[in-house]
Amino acid sequence: MWTRKAVTYAGFGTILVLFAPFINNLQLLLLGITLLGFVAIHSLVNTRPVEVKITRRFSDSQLFEGQETEVDLVIQNRGRPIGCLEVYDQLPRELGPEKVANHTIVRLRRDEALLARYRLECHLRGQYTLGRPRLRLYNPSFLFYHESEVESTDELVVFPKIEEIEGLDLSSDFPKMYQGAMPIRRIGTSGEFYSIREYYPGDDFKHINWRVFGRTRKLMVNQFEREDISDVMLVLDAREISGTGTPVHNPLNYSCRAAAALTRYFLHTRNRVGLTIYGETVESIGVDSGERHLYRLLTRLAELRPAGSLGLHTVIGDLRNFTPRSPVIVISTLEQDRTVHAALREITAHGFRLTLIAPDTLEYDRESRIISPAVYFTASAELDNTIAEARSLGARALRWDPSSVLGPALQEVVR
Amino acid sequence: MQALATAALAAGAWLGHAVTEAQEPLLTQALNVMLGWGGLDPVFLVTPAAVGGGILLGALLGGTLVYADIHGRGPPALALLALLPFLLSWLSLIDRLPVAPATLHALANYGWLGLPLLCGVPGIWRGNLPAIALGALLLLVQPLTLEGNDVAALLPILGFIFCFLLYIELAYDQLRYERLARIMHHSTEFEAVLNWFGVMLLLTLACTTALTAAAFGFHEVLGEVLPARFRNSIEFNTIYGRALSAMTFFALWAIAQTIFSRQFLARQVE
Q1: CA dist B184 → A109, A141, A143, B177 (Å)
Q2: Does B74 map to a domain?
């Protein structure tokens, strides 16, 4: 391809050659010929296509929002020597290419391999495709260039940021048959102290609280919490409205973070967790346990995009198959969902232990002038009413300000 | 690179006038005629001493502009420089300036002859492409004469062409490589790329010289090939014939390059 400089040189050279005879000027004629000759010579230098292979290596295979990773671009020349090669690694807009140095210029000798390294800031969860790298080959005086793309794409999954949650008691009244680790606020045999009571013949001597006996001269025994597996179902609102706001500050992102934190907490305490997502369709991932299941759920949360307008009532059908009286945690903005009241009533009527988390970005939206004050007050009042109604149904409902930490906020409503 | 471009610009300005040393350039004549219309003496005169003085003054004023621009005072300095000739002329006309008119006339002459450097130097050192282009244009048109020139002044012509190309190339590529240096601030490859550029520029200039000689000599080849009535025609044996021969040479070059290009050959194979 010709650059503007080459076109100017060739045009100017031709004009000089054609114009010089009219003023009988050998100087201009020779200058014109020289300019044309310069362009002609440069059309042969460093403009042939190149054979370059580019591969990527990431410093971290698993990434979470807010983390950085180093990307190593291995540029390998498999053909002729290259004097000046621009390499531009195409990145998705969300990965902040305005700051990263994904653009480099190298000189490559025959069969030489070079390493170009840049840091990538992952601000937003998602499944991203990096590449294909774009190559631009200039000749030394920038008269011609050759552009091409290299077939080299890599997938990068950025998981939602996970907050540490500790000691959260989302107890179930319904233990499952198999032993597990979730405290269900029943007397049992775990290490967690529950209460003390009087000794009855037949009680195990090792449970006698000797300190109380020394003080009161009465035999008392310690009682412990019983631990059982509990199935926890997370219901996530991924409607289009949940994506309202900026790409980073929107309810869906915060919902995904909350869901990721809860998923990891429950799975690490050896419970089983399922995920139901509603929005454009209703998608259910059945309850399961283990690291592989955590990875599966996090991957789904990473690639989740806001779409559709299905209401909460659409998940009721799927919940009917779920273990009765188990904890159900609904994470939803509750906005513009006419079915939410009926759905909440039906969930509690089925005996599920309902916890409702409503990520509230209304304040941020108002301050950023995304919504008007009138819309803010209407939406805020509507949200308060829905939360109050959920509480009246016996649910633990939380209007969660995403700038605050989820764990303590949940502890407040659980208490 | 910048120092070399400045030197090439100064040498080009000198050689441009050296090509036409015995003749009065067109633009200088035009300026003198305009002064004559205002009832003033013709003050613009091209002599080797005046050209030397002009180059020095142009470099000095261009350097001052660069210095002012570095310190954020480019526009006021430029405005002052543009107004200064008018102010001095006015003061001189009303006899309020304690400087002899002859000195002022010489200064005006130097200023005019140093104009390519006044434009080119800030262009080179401050990375301003329009200023570089204006400098090149002035370098080319300022010494133009109505009588033209021929092989009698071949050496200064070749020197001028070499300096002109060196100035344009180094000044423009300085701009481009500055951008590359910004991109490559984290890389150790920049030195290698810059060395490659320097070597390739010298090599391509040498090849260009050979190609220019070939294109110029192609006229003789055509003379041998063409029928006698073309070969002996008046048009063919003047500079017009040379120009057309050169154009024919490059047309043949373009055709050959297209035919032997990889893409063209690949299409034939398909």
Answers
A1: 18, 18, 21, 10
A2: yes
Distance in Å, alpha carbon of B146 to nearest chain A alpha carbon: 6
Of A29, A32, A142, the CB nearest to B176: A142
Do residues A284 and A274 lie in contact, with contact meaning Cβ atoms separated by under 8 Å? yes
- Looking at the structure, do residues B95 and B216 belong to the same domain, yes or no? no
Sheet with A353-359, side-by-side order of all strands? A282-288, A272-278, A231-237, A327-331, A353-359, A396-400
The pLDDT of residue B266 is 60
pLDDT tens digits for A192-202? Answer: 676 788 888 88
Same domain, B261 and B175: no
Q: How far is CA B243 from the centre of its chain?
A: 21
**Mean per-residue pLDDT, B257-270:** 66
Q: How confident is the model at residue A298, as a pLDDT?
A: 93
Domain span at residue B108 reads 2-183
Does residue B195 lie within any of the structural domains? no
Q: Are residues B33 and B88 in the same domain?
A: yes
Residue-wise pLDDT for B205-254, tens only, equals 889 888 888 888 888 888 888 888 888 888 888 888 888 888 989 899 88
Same domain for B179 and B213? no
Q: What is the DSSP-derived secondary structure letter of residue A242?
A: G
The residues, ordered by sequence, that sit 6+ positions from A291 with a Cβ below 8 Å of its Cβ are A267
DSSP, collapsed to helix, strand or coil, labels residue A300 as helix
Rounded to an integer, what distance in angstroms lies between the CA atom of residue A181 and that of residue A390? 28
CB A360 within 8 A of CB A400: yes
CA distances from A119 to A100, A248, B42 (A): 6, 20, 66
C-beta atoms of B247 and A20 within 8 A: no
Interface of A with B in 126-145 (CB under 8 A): 139-142
DSSP 8-state class, residue A323: P
CA–CA distance, A86 with B182 (Å, rounded to integer): 13
